[in-house]
Amino acid sequence: xxxxxxxxxxxxxxxxxxxxxxxxxxxxxxxxxxxxxxxxxxxxxxxxxxxxxxxxxxxxxxxxxxxxxxxxxxxxxxxxxxxxxxxxxxxxxxxxxxxxxxxxxxxxxxxxxxxxxxxxxxxxxxxxxxxxxxxxxxxxxxxxxxxxxxxxxxxxxxxxxxxxxxxxxxxxxxxxxxxxxxxxxxxxxxxxxxxxxxxxxxxxxxxxxxxxxxxxxxxxxxxxxxxxxxxxxx
Length: 234
What we know:
Elements: H1 2-10, E1 13-18, E2 20-22, E3 33-34, E4 39-40, E5 47-49, H2 51-67, E6 71-78, H3 83-91, E7 96-101, H4 110-124, E8 129-133, H5 144-152, E9 156-166, E10 169-176, E11 179-185, E12 189-193, H6 206-212, E13 218-220, H7 222-225
Parallel strand pairs: 1-6, 1-8, 6-7, 7-13, 8-12, 9-12
Antiparallel strand pairs: 2-5, 3-4, 9-10, 10-11
Helix pairs in contact: 3-6, 4-5
């Protein structure tokens, strides 16, 4: 049983979904609204990785460190500029990254996003643990994680901040309206991650940032995956 535990968790395959958004700290002078689309103009402000997505990546990195091994893939569905978010993930020591280039609506609804992500995940391989931020800092719907789990047919645990190995299962520490609880789950499982003092994203070293631009990045279009990008909220 001990040998099974070591082999399984040293080789856990993890995928973290990341979203690029307009910097929530953008100065008011740089914030512009497209009146026709009724959304913020992406080209008028700094673009950053969604902080809850980075919390998820940090939680995955910490889990891998405690387990003594494993592989972390980063995945994003967004415009070409989202490559920068994935490069940062590589600099933080994700093992591989893939971008599904959004050639459709600028703000597809969560179900459309979940379907694209599910198709990409099936294309990339089999994963034990799929992690997302609890919500995005732009639209704040908080639905993609649950919908992705439904698309994949996996259970979903929401509002987690720590994940540990528990024999041949995972033990997930999650926030509730009444405090905290521990949940044990078999893999594969989808986990959405909230922010906590334990998962503040690490700052990558300059050398690792430079090296991230030499690493390969897999790119797909929704058409390559046999899905449509979907509609926007409006």
